[in-house]
Amino acid sequence: xxxxxxxxxxxxxxxxxxxxxxxxxxxxxxxxxxxxxxxxxxxxxxxxxxxxxxxxxxxxxxxxxxxxxxxxxxxxxxxxxxxxxxxxxxxxxxxxxxxxxxxxxxxxxxxxxxxxxxxxxxxxxxxxxxxxxxxxxxxxxxxxxxxxxxxxxxxxxxxxxxxxxxxxxxxxxxxxxxxxxxxxxxxxxxxxxxxxxxxxxxxxxxxxxxxxxxxxxxxxxxxxxxxxxxxxxxxxxxxxxxxxxxxxxxxxxxxxxxxxxxxxxxxxxxxxxxxxxxxxxxxxxxxxxxxxxxxxxxxxxxxxxxxxxxxxxxxxxxxxxxxxxxxxxxxxxxxxxxxxxxxxxxxxxxxxxxx
Length: 355
Description:
10 helices; 15% strand; single chain; alpha/beta; Rossmann fold; 12 strands
């Protein structure tokens, strides 16, 4: 399940390599047999990190008033992937970067320049040597990061739990204090939870956000408006954010769908849709689909995925195709006729879409 040669090739200035090394040093794997070992980004995770951290080449360094989100090629990222692809631990690591890592542009490196955690109050010993001309990074002075999901259980399970483990079992425990409702970053920063029932924190001066499963945020459940409000608050502070989702039901007009279809050129979109000539109901084709959509995720057992997907196909074929095949198909009971979305509105297969 390795990526085709050159598919994830980075040929642009980015904070991604600095952030990847920072993550491996500060964020241990939260669970499983490798619990406690450095969290090393997989191919697709590094690709998304590099694109989210992509810096505009002409960005000036203004020490007294640094350029914030406009220093970056992408002000938001949408990552769409199948079940167990590794989206949640990746999101937890990105939250750590937003909270205490090199999330802001800090100028262009000259020979001998380094990122030294000690400069920012972290005694972990991490030092990153820049290459000449590489963009440099720095943390937010007063970070406020919000994590959003449809329910508190969802945000706890998918992001809060792995983030908490990364913090408590690594050097970030020195700078981030973990509570049940929020995490305190140093003396002035905070990581907060936001759900449909706990939206009172909206409007806070947020510097970053992660929105979990935006394919389920709709006008009907009120989450679409909550997500939009969070984005507005973050953009006002010069911050940026990340959306995560499984493939969505195109009949629901979700936040993820609107983000993917938006004409905005400063959104990074990662969504590897399988070749359209493959049928998910055909076992041989289904294996090819799984191999394609789980590319860059060596931890995934495709035999286990096949067993679960085959069983789910018997009860809810559309859900199986969305969750494991990474395909946009309407759910059971939707009004849209079979094949209409695929024939009229589906975009070409993309590994990533960003101008």
